[in-house]
Write a structure and sequence with these properties.
The protein has 190 residues and is mainly alpha-helical. The chain is built from 7 helices and 3 strands. The chain is globular and about 40 Å long.
Amino acid sequence: RVKSLNVNVFSCRPDDGADLCITRCAKGRFRPVTAPAAFSTWHLLCWLHRPDSAISGHSPNENLRGRSCMSYDPLSEVIDEPLTVDARVLEQLREYRLASKLPHLPGIDVTEERDRLRENLDNLVDRLLCGVEQNPTKRLVLAQFQPSLKAVEGEDTEGRDHFGMEIESIMDILGIDSSNGLLNHYLGGM
């Protein structure tokens, strides 16, 4: 008999000493554990099903060594660079703020979803207009993206995809070529 297992897999930074960080549900509580780097998928699944011991003598508690895998911040992977933010860029952001958004969001009666996502995008642009001129850096912009991206993690796939396309439009306005994995982390691989 196979029991269901609730697992979230996170990418770890190389200095964490493991390939995978996982959150597993044990007795109704989620806890972070670090999987040994050499585990195959089959070994990993067997290891996750065992309460506090694991294959090859590794246990979740041994692998934690005082570190929390839940502290990973994808912003740490961002390669910062200066941006050119002039009057033209600020005007394009203002125009984007006033423009119609998510016009091709699929589904039946998506008005409520579109309004929710549009409000999130408008708040993002407001934050950018308040700070990007004084601190025109890629890191600042992507740090402003983070709360908006976190807010849409629970949306359906189409909503996240279309939201991501709108974020990419903002990146185009600001001259940012890559989010260094930030969008992929929150939107699940656009």
